[in-house]
Amino acid sequence: MGAEVSVLSTSADKEAAAKQLGAKNFILTDADSNWAEPWAFTFNFMLNTADAAHKFDMSTYLSTLAVNGEMHHVGLPDAPLPEIKAQTFAPNGCKMGGSHIGSRPEMFKMLQLVSEKKLKPMIETIPISEEGCAKAVKGVHENTVRYRYTLVDYDKAFPNR
Asked: DSSP H helical segments within the chain, as ranges?
């Protein structure tokens, strides 16, 4: 679709999947390294899908944005974002935004694109049950989820609905 994609992740075990899905670069955002230095002023748009942004060194992530670049959050943590000084935005004039869900017209456009490109979701299914829900919550908490969990077997769990 024309974009050059780089994946930023705290998990090295996601690299093979990222490359298989078409990422040109995989960047391990190890807190003990200077991972951002080679990527300073590089990215026009950064889409954050993690719900752990409250753990990010936000100034480091923002430093990788190009002039007028944007970091957009769709993974929304329960905790507040880290404190950011206004000076953090000055070197590249970057901005941050966020959204919870797209509008109805945006969803229709997305579904049309998915249909045209014959894209399929990458999910892991889990039966909806006490055990299944516990597994899902644990997986999210321990960052072992790959792609998305989808709860299934509603008819088994709720036969009289």
From this structure: 15-20, 58-63, 104-117, 130-141, 154-157
